[in-house]
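Notebook p. 47: complex prediction with zinc ion.
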Amino acid sequence: MLLEGNARFVHGERLHPNQDADRRSESAPRQRPFAVLFGCSDSRLAAEIIFDRGLGDLFVVRTAGHVAGAEVLGSIEYGVTVLGAPLVVVLGHDSCGAVTAASEAERSGAAPAGYLGDVVERVMPSVLAARAAGLTEIDQFVDAHIRRTVTGLVERSALLANAVSDGRCAVVGLSYRLAEGTVSRVAEYGLED
Ligand SMILES: [Zn+2]
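Predicted complex, structure tokens below:
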């Protein structure tokens, strides 16, 4: 459903599903999102727009560089275990500012001030691992960070790991291209084709 919606968005054929008054009243008593979308906060990554979905479809959690602290993990666990979403999507994108900032901090040795430093600190291991693997481009770091975020969610959240091993939930990593509007799958856990 997400990939179909993204294809409609890319081709300028959006259907705007589940965005009318009927859907609003039908979904008001109870939400049953079909996916938890955990993405970067980038203003060009608006989830319901780029996947052409509507109300009640996506349980959205977004932070700069899709970094996951305790509240983020709890929100994702809520989407999966309480709301029953069968899919968690990690959504990153090319030219990500958080990944670029981490790359620059690694090069200069100077972390940004304030809580920005916490964001950079959480992206840094992905940048270090990517560099150690011989990667050099920001967009390669981005995909490495998406993969690492997918793995990290399953490793850190026992509730999510249980849902994956029970077959109740899958986790996928998608990489979005800002100019084209397309997504490609760069990681997956527990997905049946
Ligand atoms: Zn970003």
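Notes: The two ends are 14 Å apart (CA to CA). The longest strand covers residues 87-93.
Next step: compare against the earlier run before touching the bench.
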